[in-house]
From TrEMBL:
PANTHER family: GLYCEROL UPTAKE OPERON ANTITERMINATOR REGULATORY PROTEIN. This is Glycerol uptake operon antiterminator regulatory protein. It comes from Staphylococcus simulans UMC-CNS-990. Regulates expression of the glpD operon. In the presence of glycerol 3-phosphate (G3P) causes antitermination of transcription of glpD at the inverted repeat of the leader region to enhance its transcription. Binds and stabilizes glpD leader mRNA. Keywords: Glycerol metabolism, RNA-binding, Transcription, Transcription regulation.
Amino acid sequence: MKPHILPAIREMRDLEKLVKTDYPTCVLLDAHIGHLQSITDLLKQHRMEMYIHVDLTRGIAHDEFGCEYLIQKFKPKGIVSTKPKVIKKAKTLKVTTILRVFIIDSHALKRSIALIQQVKPDFVEVLPGVASKVIQKIYDETKTPVIAGGLIDLEEEVQEAVTSGAEYVTTSNKTLW
């Protein structure tokens, strides 16, 4: 297991590889509601926990009601969302929350910092994860642990994100797991 990696699962074959590792936690991206029970069962069997990306779960509304259902039915370690209402609902249900923000320019950075301060997620996932310049700034201004994600393909990029202050790095690049 490489430190600071949080495997991001997009397909069943990724899940099959993950359960052969010693990672304790993963993020489920792009899952279908009809497959979540078997995925949950498989992960429990291997003593692994998951975060469910609410916005990318197909077959269910990407709102606070869909979030509540996912948490009550599948009991994930936490959820990931870009939506403040979803994060707030998950916080009331006592699971770990990850607010995903996209930093494409200085305006998006300023808006994201204000949103993080308002919503107070447990973590903020900054995309693209190669945006090491903003990782420390977001942490300094919000005191929220940062997860870097997106476009991370090299071990050096993982190290740069961690050196810049990221607590974890999400990646679906299996060569980095």
